[in-house]
Design a protein that fits this description.
This protein has about 425 residues and is mainly beta. The protein has a single domain, classed as Porin, CATH 2.40.160. The chain is about 5% helix and about 60% strand. The chain contains two helices and 25 strands. The strands form four sheets. A 16-stranded antiparallel barrel has the order 1-5-6-7-8-9-10-13-14-17-18-20-21-23-24-25. Strands 2-3 form a two-stranded antiparallel ribbon. The longest helix is centred in the first third of the chain and has 20 residues.
Length: about 425
């Protein structure tokens, strides 16, 4: 069934693409795009990762066997082509008395599940575009990813866990006033999820955390841009409801307690000739759904009813990325994240619904080179990521102390053929 679906979907894309190319005089046009990509990479250590290791986050902590050998200190080599991608952009026609242009996009790759070459939807949205306004509905990059300013790296993590990585269903409005653009969005979660308790009180990714809270993810952003520069500010609010009921000593009780979180940041870029410099810094709470460090924990626990009051994590995230070149390009990404603890003290005997709660700080240095000729790109990249693991201090808002570093070195080579 999946194979038939895939063949049919690609056939529709090809027919739509060729139909659009044969009607260049029409305002309704379609364009097929994407790339075929082959990757090979080496890792010096086991790491927290996703997508069969394609999306690397940070090295795992030491894990010693009975004679003192570090089980996670292991070399690994991988080859894959699952990040190959295909998409369709279509639209161009006008509606509402020719005042709005309709645009749509559908894109997928082959990274749906680990160890399986299955289709995964990346983008699927419809957009109405007026002269100074845009209205988008569907799945695409979360605005906190800042699609105009993100690291250009070989790795498909494109800067995660220092830069947000999240595509979500959303309703987004953008207004342009001269050189300023104002963005407001309402979003819900899909496959980019936060952590919560399951029926056995295990820590799992949960689709219903935001649905149960009845409040969408709210995002506001303002950006100033010229032909050579851009600078933006954003604020992001999120509310989750981890439990619908609790169990305590005296019985079972319905609960509607939620955990709220707020993230803010600033980003910018400068382009001149062959040189491009980009940077972002942010303070974030509970950003597990963006493949970043952090989450939430229990601040107060009522043993009689099982009622939980929650507190959010706090982290700083920063990255700097610069490139120089055109046919032959060299670049460098530097990323740093620091654990600032939770907003309140946390209860030691309860779960911590977070990623990397025992990491004090995390940093990455990643140089890369790219050669491009026509539709072919050859890439090489070294990604050095260090995590400082330590002890969680429950008396000081869950801050991490007595940390020591572990490092993973990834060396990656890739060949890309661009579908125009």
């Amino acid at each position: 069934m999946r194979r038939l679906f895939f063949i049919g979907w690609v056939t529709v894309l090809l027919i739509s693409g060729f139909s659009g190319w044969s009607q260049n005089t029409s305002e309704w046009k379609s364009k097929l795009y994407g790339f075929v990509r082959a990757d090979a990479f080496y890792d010096s250590r086991k790491s927290a990762e996703a997508v069969d290791g394609m999306l690397l986050l940070y090295p795992l902590n030491t894990l010693y066997d009975s004679v003192g050998n570090d089980i996670n200190n292991i070399d690994q080599v991988t080859m894959t082509s699952i990040s190959s991608r295909i998409g369709l952009k279509t639209g161009g026609g006008k509606i509402f008395n020719s005042s709005a242009i309709v645009q749509a996009r559908l894109e997928a790759d082959f990274t749906a599940r680990s160890n399986s070459n299955s289709l995964r939807m990346r983008h699927a949205y419809v957009q109405l575009k007026w002269e100074n306004h845009k209205l988008l509905m569907g799945r695409t990059w979360h605005p906190m990813f800042t699609p105009d300013v993100f690291p250009y790296t070989l790795s498909i993590n494109v800067g995660a866990p220092f830069n947000p990585f999240n595509r979500s269903p959303q309703l987004r409005y953008t207004a342009t006033i001269k050189r300023f653009s104002l963005l407001a969005a309402l979003l819900y979660q899909n496959d980019a999820l936060n952590l919560g308790p399951d029926s056995n009180n295990e820590i799992v990714k949960r689709l219903d955390l935001m649905r149960n809270s009845m409040i969408p993810n709210i995002h506001l952003q303002v950006k100033y841009s010229t032909e050579l520069t851009a600078i933006g500010l954003f604020a992001d609010f999120k509310s989750l409801r981890p439990r619908n009921f609790t169990t305590g000593i005296v019985g079972l009780f319905k609960t509607n307690n939620t955990i709220e979180s707020l993230s803010t940041g600033i980003y910018g870029k400068v382009t001149t000739g062959k040189f491009c410099l980009k940077a972002k810094t942010m303070l974030g709470q509970n950003l597990t759904d963006h493949l970043m460090l952090g989450g939430y924990a229990v601040h107060k626990l009522d043993a009689a009813t099982g009622e939980e009051i929650y507190t959010a994590s706090n982290h700083s995230f920063s990255w700097l990325n610069f490139e120089y070149g055109k046919t032959f390009t060299g670049g460098l990404l530097i990323g740093y994240s620091h654990n600032l603890g939770f907003s309140n003290n946390i209860v030691p005997i309860t779960n911590i619904y977070a990623r990397g709660s025992d990491i004090e700080y995390l940093y990455r240095v990643s140089p890369y080179v790219k050669w491009q000729s026509e539709r072919v790109e050859l890439w090489a990249e070294t990604e050095i990521t260090t995590a400082a693991y330590g002890d969680i201090d429950y008396n000081h808002r869950g801050r991490v102390q007595n940390s020591s570093e572990v490092t993973n070195v990834r060396v990656q080579f890739s060949c890309v053929y661009l579908i125009m």
